[in-house]
């Protein structure tokens, strides 16, 4: 049975790290729109140039662009047996577009729960370690505001398939919580 899992949580909650680990364990692709968009910016593609300024301001890339990118990715052969989505959908309109585009609905939503002070600290530390220009305190706070306004409503949208996981602790501890919740 294919596994179609969505990771939700605010920026800095650990979605990418945990999704990559789980995708490896389940042998399904980890589909991260953030990674796809950052790669496009770095490569200087038309899409990359179009979204660079949007991302640097901490705003979200338009639904049409992101939906097109994800639709194309989900059509690839390796996604037939399942996938983990990280960074998409980011709002209810994108969730509806996903429902329209795929025949099998998301089966599980993993929501990583982390408080704001912890998130800001993590993102500032990541900015220093990775030199990410989009992670300064002003942009971080803006991204958190956008998350609460645009993405958090997905928790209600997906309702019964949401598993809330405490996202604070070591990477391995959080992964163990996710694996245990999925095994139930």
What can you tell me about this protein's structure?
The chain is an alpha/beta fold and 184 residues long. It is built from nine helices and five strands; from the N terminus they run E-H-E-H-H-H-E-H-E-H-H-H-E-H. It has helices at 15-26, 33-43, 46-56, 63-74, 92-101, 116-130, 137-151, 154-158, 171-183; strands at 3-8, 30-32, 82-86, 108-113, 162-166. The longest helix is centred in the C-terminal third of the chain and has 15 residues, at 116-130. It is globular. The two termini are 16 Å apart.
The percent range for strand residues is 5-15%
CATH-derived topology: Rossmann fold
Order of helices and strands: EHEHHHEHEHHHEH
Principal-axes shape call = globular
Mean pLDDT equals 89
The CATH class turns out to be: Alpha Beta
Unreliable residue runs: none
Secondary-structure blueprint:
Blueprint: E1 3-8, H1 15-26, E2 30-32, H2 33-43, H3 46-56, H4 63-74, E3 82-86, H5 92-101, E4 108-113, H6 116-130, H7 137-151, H8 154-158, E5 162-166, H9 171-183
Parallel strand pairs: 1-3, 1-4, 2-3, 4-5
Helix pairs in contact: 1-9, 2-3, 4-5, 6-7
Sum this structure up briefly:
The chain has 184 residues and is α/β, with parallel strands linked by helices. The chain contains nine helices and five strands; from the N terminus they run βαβαααβαβαααβα. Helix 1 crosses helix 9, helix 4 packs parallel to helix 5 and helix 6 packs across helix 7.
């Amino acid at each position: 049975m294919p596994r179609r899992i969505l990771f939700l949580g605010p920026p800095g909650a650990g979605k990418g790290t945990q999704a990559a680990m789980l995708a490896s364990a389940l042998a399904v692709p980890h589909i991260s729109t953030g990674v796809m968009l950052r790669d496009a910016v770095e490569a200087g593609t038309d899409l990359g140039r179009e979204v660079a300024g949007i991302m640097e301001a901490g705003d979200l890339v338009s639904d049409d662009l992101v939906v097109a990118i994800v639709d194309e990715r989900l059509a690839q052969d390796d996604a037939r047996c399942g996938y983990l989505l990280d960074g998409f959908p980011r709002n209810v309109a994108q969730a509806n577009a996903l429902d329209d585009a795929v025949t099998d609905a998301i089966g599980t939503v993993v929501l990583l729960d982390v408080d704001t002070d912890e998130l800001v600290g993590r993102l500032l530390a990541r900015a220093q370690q990775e030199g990410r220009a989009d992670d300064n305190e002003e942009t971080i706070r803006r991204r958190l505001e956008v998350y609460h306004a645009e993405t958090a409503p997905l928790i209600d949208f997906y309702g019964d398939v949401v598993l809330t996981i405490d996202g604070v602790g070591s990477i391995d501890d959080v992964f163990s919580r996710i694996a245990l919740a999925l095994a139930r």
